[in-house]
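Class prep. Protein, please:
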Amino acid sequence: MPAQAGWRGECTVMVSNATQYKIWCDGNGPESYRAAIKCFGTSGTSYRYGAWKWHGDRTGSYAACPGGVNAITSRWMELS
């Protein structure tokens, strides 16, 4: 039986530490997802976003804070 188009599965966190966040979501597009983080460091607050990936793309979406004294203060995923 072929996979149903538009099926959205569960999302899994692959990496989650002080400066990196990577997720992947199971499924069968065309819906998509991306990683999103809020960083804080010596230059203030910044938002970083991973590439949009379709559900089922196991390469995942990755976001990281820039180098220097930065740390993630919040992390979330966005779905479309």
User: Anything to note?
Assistant: Residues 21 and 74 are 10 Å apart (CA to CA). The two ends are 26 Å apart (CA to CA).
